[in-house]
Write a structure and sequence with these properties.
single chain; binds nickel (II) ion; 5 strands; Peptide Deformylase; 5-stranded antiparallel β-sheet; 173 residues
């Protein structure tokens, strides 16, 4: 997949790229490395802790995480699998692609992630707490799921105006 990295920018719900299952990264080349750099730019600028490629407009199975929000801590997870386990927990979450919406989202407290890094090496890690939550959130993105799909009816009603505004903005594009 040829990516025009210069054209990459943050995408907002309900953009179609955020609602489909992303495709595997076939080759870790300069194009993919430039995309990761661009995603790190967006992450730092928007003050996030995780960003998936569909959020930069690219439907690839790739995300970055930086729990500190610092660029130097940003790490790439290419073609990841995230397997949640343990107890469930409900914590308030937001998403850079769904601005103005915060809702309690139920997720597992722990997760096992296996992915390929930018050097092409596969790694596996056990995560818990915020890290585990972030991995589940970003994995959702490459599966075409956003917090809007996971929040309860009450939150959906509470945020209906903002969700309508986001939908209208998408229509206008
Ligand atoms: Ni998100």
């Amino acid at each position: 997949m040829a990516i025009d990295v210069d054209q990459c920018k943050i995408t907002y719900y309900p953009a179609p790229v955020l609602r489909g299952r992303a495709a595997p990264v076939e080759k870790i080349d300069d194009n993919v490395r430039r995309l990761v750099e661009k995603m790190a730019d967006i992450l730092v600028e928007k003050k996030g802790i995780g960003l998936a490629a569909p959020q930069a407009g690219v439907g690839l199975r790739l995300f970055i995480v930086s729990l500190s929000g610092k660029r130097e801590d940003a790490r790439a997870y290419i073609n990841p699998t995230v397997t949640p386990h343990g107890d469930l927990d409900e914590v308030e979450e937001g998403c850079l692609s769904v601005p103005g919406v915060w809702a309690k989202i139920r997720r597992y407290k722990k997760a096992t992630v296996t992915a390929t890094d930018l050097a092409g090496n596969q790694f596996t890690e056990e995560a818990e707490g915020l890290y585990a939550r972030c991995l589940q959130h970003e994995y959702d993105h490459i599966e075409g799921t956003v917090i809007v799909n996971r929040m309860g009816e009450a939150a959906r009603i509470a945020h209906r105006r903002q969700l309508k505004k986001l939908a209208d903005e998408q229509e206008g594009k």
